[in-house]
Amino acid sequence: MKILTAAQMREVDRRTSEERSVPSLILMENAGARVFEFLAHKFGPLEKQRVAVICGKGNNGGDGLVVARQLHTRGRVGRLQVVLAGDPDSLQGDAAANYRMLLGADHRPRIVKTETEWEAALGEILDSTIVVDGLLGAGLRGPAEGQYLRIIRDVNARLSHAQVVAVDIPSGLASDSGERLGEAIRADHTITFTAPKVGQVFPPNCEAVGALHVVPIGSAPSLYEDDPEIFLSTIDPAFIAPLFAPRARDAHKGNFGHVLVVAGSTPKPGAAALAGAAALRAGAGLVTVATAARATSAVVAHAPELMTEPLPETELGTVSPAAFDYQRFEKIAANKDVIAIGPGLGTNDETQGFIRKVVRESSQRLVLDADALLQENVRAGAVLTPHPGEMSRLTGMPTAEIQRRRVEVAREFACARGAYVVLKGYRTLVATPDGRVFVNLTGTPAMASGGSGDVLTGMIAGLLAQFPKAPPEQAIAAAVYLHGKAGELASQELGEQCALATDLLRSLSAAIASLRDA
Asked: CA 26 to CA 509: how far, in whole Å?
């Protein structure tokens, strides 16, 4: 699903009205109706709820006024109180029309123009069980000030016991950036219209959104999904679910690809074992792990289904360039579909020489991670899986700069080098050579432990090998999404502190099963 800026959203709304003959008043009505339907479904029966709807003077306030009218005429709410922060005479267009319609339905909002009037209104809604936030919308360009800031602070501090449902975007939140403008309402749920907005998916702003619900209000998806200028998208289950349709009844292991994992060392055999096992769990038909000779027994002990190829070692117990003697490595790689290389191999000169030779001479699609992530190893079509520190090594930029400009850095590097970049972290990104960027919304702090990245590398390789005819970004995005989903499931079972990388493997089947609804 495409992610829009405020300007892009306004353009979609404009074209919906002018080109597709859907009046803006109808769009506002649909927006309010979708919020009402969410409230009725999530918190019903509404007769038991005390609802406060807080509206501002703009179109977001107009949406809130529709919600209020729907609650009044359809909801049979236990108690409904509507607060309009501003002079009704200053309302314009569709917001003014919906104010008149609310009056026509025999419900008069409480008008609040001063902080004293707000304090009096606050006293009457302090026991609310639900607060609908329609104060400020996506068009905000600076920090909230004055009375609006006071209301934001009071909702957060004095109405924190209530469930806060934001209309389109929490008031005070920047629409076009993850960086904070100022103070914003902290919502439990945000009902956004047509498509997610940039500020709703990137940290730290996304922390104020709560659960994000994207609902249609009448704009045709072709107005934004088919626009090549809109390059940001979320990784949605519907995008990746087709890869996991039931297999043919006569399928065999040769149908699902053969992955070669080149990883691990005598000091670090676990990296090879995790990456190899993850490729198998992701569905690859065959997986061979080529690793330092003395590490092979540890790999097989972890997953006996893995095949191994012992490679000559350096004095440090890492893979030696002697692996290429007598075309040994070439023969190992000959019939493989995808090569994943890097985890746990080592950074000494001899092993790095081996890595460079693998990258230079292999014709298969490469997944590069960890010790293979160097500028000289990047080639067109390769999949890179750096964390921010490794991205710093690839670009020469400080890690702090990369974290501040994650989308731009990943996109620019992918386009310049013709590679696929999986920039790991909170809201992992998948950047493609043609400039698209997919944002992953799954994941948990429970995954912040050793080995999680090795699992992702193996999953990407396994899915690329399994689906050679699919667009590479679809298989890569599927691995990233399911990796995060498996982390969430493992965290639910074991807690954030106790989940391990191996628990991601055990939770992967449930993560894949969760795609069935898509």
From this structure: 43
